[in-house]
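Feature request disguised as a bug report, sorry. It would help if multi-protein outputs had a clear separator. Right now it looks like this:
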Amino acid sequence: MKDYSEYFREAVASFLAQNPALQKELACITVDEAESIGTTVETLHSQVMNQRFVEHATQLGIDTNHLVLQFIDASENEKNQILKNYHQNLANSLGIDWQDYISINPHLSHL
């Protein structure tokens, strides 16, 4: 199974493919503009795409994880496993036992 960052990149690429306004915005980014903030065009493209993706999730009133799941090609079982892995990693990074994490976040009990 891929790691979450791979799914995120896949979702952002799909979002870009379906978003002509974002494609146009990215096409207008110049080398001078990128260099003026100390980066490359490729890095600035990536930052803008990620920012617009997160903004889109906010506009929809959902978290970024659920928007990622909407944009990737995976079965419901795979999506549940991706979400579970994401939250297990989060719980581990916070030093919280998985069962305690679930009790704090009962909406995830189906995972």
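(second protein starts here, but nothing in the output says so)
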Amino acid sequence: MERLFVYGTLRPGHENAPILENIGGEWLPGWVHGTFYARGWGAAADFPGIVLDKQGPRVDGYLFISDKLAAHWADAG
């Protein structure tokens, strides 16, 4: 099983969620520690960023778990 932490538009209920939903898998609530950047060039294009930091604040999101993730990325490349 591969795992992907999702915190932006790929989350369930957001505009890019079908990209992962069509792969098939399980969604679990999750979080990481770091700094969430809702501004900047990425955020302006709807791609906010996170800089991971064990001492940083909690950033909520979802853990997407699927045995098809690696194959999906290989097919997309």
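Even a blank line would do. Unrelated, but nice: The CA atoms of residues 68 and 74 lie 10 Å apart.
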